[in-house]
Amino acid sequence: MRRLNRKKTLNLMKELDAFPKVPESYVETSASGGTVSLIAFTTIAFLTIMEFTVYRDTWMKYEYEVDKDFTSKLRINIDITVAMRCQCKYSISESFETL
After folding, report:
1. Which of 33, 35, 45, 98 is the most exposed place for a label (fewest CB within 10 A)?
2. Longest C-alpha distance within the chain, in Å?
3. pTM of the model
4. With the C-alpha atoms ordered 81, 85, 88, 93, is the resulting torsion angle positive or negative?
């Protein structure tokens, strides 16, 4: 009984293939096609190995140096907003009237 269940499940899985196989009449093997495939596979494998090698051999090099030029100044711009009430002599309307 269990074997029949497995066979049904296997047949069901074959029918649910999301990417159906290409019919055999469309497939044509040739020596040039095999050569291109081998060259492409070799190139991809070589590039993958080289990228992994570069990734493993890369090191961060930190260099610190004391600034010996005491005459130079570092310019720092600061934008500050202070949330306080403004205590002005003139109101806004009075300042426009004088213009």
Report:
1. 98
2. 103
3. 0.41
4. positive
